[in-house]
């Protein structure tokens, strides 16, 4: 059985949908914090069990019989995140999994400027120490995050963000499909980290602002906000100071080129070109 964690989240839910297009529902199980939110999957024949990375006993039940288990990384940063990932890895080992897959990020390294990439590197160390085969999906930077950073400045026509660098913005849907391809077909195994699974181009926020101008016919300029000003703006908007520190490291890492190199691996897995940032921007703008 193939088990997917976080199956009601954005990446996990799309992965399950792509997986169900490839394997029978009775071969798919999901581990979710709230089974009620996965009732639609249960109605389609997917095994739904409650599981949380903070509750090892519950994970043992959720992972029971799983031969391939996809651990979708926790959507936060710091030591507690790594601790939860280690709990999930231990549960997968105890369940007898033959392979663990994990959603990491391009640029994962203990020396990365971005906290999440350091967390991914620590999790990969735990995977390597687990004693069973593992695959770390080195996903390109989620395009949705870039569009979220861009959004507040669109109405004013000015995108004021810290200095950045080119980033391989990549669609959730493409990454979810790639995960499903690897989960469903053992012939698509990668041992250890995959190549970066990215879109075909690396764009700065100046590039994104220019694309918005082109798509809307309204001039949107990109200006540079000092790091301290950006941090203060986040905190004033209710973001905890520690989280603001972590978000700022995205720009620090981008300036150092950590997310700047496209790779053909994602297109090869999908058998097509990944969705372009232009398309994603057009869709976001259409939503208003």
Features of the shown structure:
Rossmann fold, 15% strand, seven-stranded parallel beta sheet, alpha/beta, 288 residues, 12 helices
What's a concise summary of this model?
By secondary structure, this protein is an alpha/beta fold. Helix content is 44%, strand content 15%.
Which series of helices and strands comes N to C?
A: EHEHEHEHEHEEHEEHEHEHHHH
How does the overall form come out from the CA principal axes?
Answer: globular
Number of helices: 12
What summary fits the major beta sheet?
A: 7 strands, parallel
The CATH topology name of the domain at 2-139 and 172-193 reads Rossmann fold
Q: Output the CATH homologous superfamily of the domain at 2-139 and 172-193.
A: NAD(P)-binding Rossmann-like Domain
Q: What's the end-to-end separation, in Å?
A: 41 Å
Which structural category fits the helices and strands?
A: alpha/beta
| CATH classification class of the domain at 2-139 and 172-193 | Alpha Beta
Kindly describe this structure:
The protein has 288 residues and is of the alpha/beta class. It has a domain at 2-139 and 172-193: Rossmann fold, CATH 3.40.50.720. Helices cover 44% and strands 15% of the residues. The chain is built from twelve helices and eleven strands. It has helices spanning 10-20, 39-43, 56-62, 79-94, 115-128, 143-150, 172-184, 205-216, 227-236, 241-255, 265-270, 277-286; strands spanning 2-5, 28-32, 47-50, 68-71, 99-105, 134-139, 141-142, 158-161, 169-170, 192-193, 221-224. Strand 2, helix 2 (39-43) and strand 3 form a beta-alpha-beta unit. The termini are far apart. The model has no long low-confidence stretch (mean pLDDT 95).
């Amino acid at each position: 059985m193939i088990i997917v964690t976080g199956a009601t989240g954005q990446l996990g839910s799309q992965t399950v949908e792509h997986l169900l297009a490839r394997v029978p529902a009775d071969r798919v199980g999901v581990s979710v914090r709230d089974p009620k939110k996965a009732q639609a999957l249960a109605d389609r024949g997917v095994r739904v069990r409650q599981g949380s990375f903070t509750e090892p006993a519950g994970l043992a039940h959720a992972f029971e019989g799983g031969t391939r288990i996809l651990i979708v990384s926790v959507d936060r940063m710091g030591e507690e995140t790594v601790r939860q990932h280690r709990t999930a890895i231990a549960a997968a080992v105890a369940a007898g999994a033959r392979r663990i897959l994990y959603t990491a990020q391009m640029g994962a390294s203990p020396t990365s400027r971005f906290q999440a990439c350091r967390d991914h590197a620590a999790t990969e160390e735990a995977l390597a120490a687990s004693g069973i085969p593992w695959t770390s999906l080195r996903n390109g930077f989620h395009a949705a995050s870039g569009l979220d950073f861009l959004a507040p400045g669109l109405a004013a026509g000015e995108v004021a963000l810290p200095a950045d660098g080119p980033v391989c913005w990549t669609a959730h849907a493409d990454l979810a499909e790639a995960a499903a391809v690897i989960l469903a077909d053992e012939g698509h195994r990668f041992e250890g980290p995959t190549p970066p699974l990215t879109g075909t181009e690396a764009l700065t926020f100046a590039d994104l602002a220019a694309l918005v101008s082109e798509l809307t016919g309204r001039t949107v300029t990109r200006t540079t906000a000092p790091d301290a000003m950006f941090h203060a703006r986040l905190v004033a908007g209710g973001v905890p100071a520690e989280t603001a520190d972590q978000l700022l490291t995205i720009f620090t890492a981008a300036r150092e080129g950590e997310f700047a190199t496209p790779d053909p691996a994602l297109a090869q897995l999908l058998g097509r070109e990944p969705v372009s940032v232009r398309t994603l921007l057009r869709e976001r703008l259409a939503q208003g």
